Amino acid sequence: MKRKRILKKFQFKTIFKIPGHIALDRVDIWLQDEARFGQQNTTTKLWAEKGSRPRAVKQQQFEYAYLFGSVCITNGASEALVVPYVNKDIMMTHLQQISDRTPIDRHAVIIMDGAGWHSDDIDADFKNLTIIKLPPYSPELNPIEQVWSWLRQHHLANRCFSGYDSIVETVCDAWNDFVSDSKRVIKMCTRDWMSLIS
């Protein structure tokens, strides 16, 4: 019952926000979020010889980079920015990436959380996209959160970084590896309640 309510609410919000001349089969669903990666890194389990105690280095420095990432569950497309800090201007630049990527005859609906730089007016200057904010304190509703776990597990955990440039390079490599397989992107991030067409 709760799942049906989520589906109906999502469909209603989406249909209400997109322009009336856009058919539902021409709407692309994008998922957007930001994650911080850096020298205070994640440690994970390691394969090791039985009876041994493998060690992983934990850095004490505080250099970070932020990854603004978006994936489209409709076609597996993606966009990303790696930046040293977060603010509304960077968010607008990221939205411009998605807008530029959206074909002329289509409309993008972007699902995101309510971070401070995701102000209610950030989509006002764009004709081909709208945003839908998730309820507060519900990151589990945005499947892109799983992408951050995948990046850490496969590329970024148990690593040392010499500085900001090293972090940026590694984060870019990790993101590019993830999005190189559009089927993986769609499979990991699609949920049945996101369907607009029953």
UniProtKB/TrEMBL annotation:
InterPro entries, per the entry: RNaseH_sf (IPR036397), Tc1-like_DDE_dom (IPR038717), Transpos_IS630-like (IPR047655)
Domain Tc1-like transposase DDE: 29-165
Protein name per its UniProtKB record: Putative transposase
Signal peptide: none
Record GO terms (molecular function): nucleic acid binding
Matching Pfam families: DDE_3
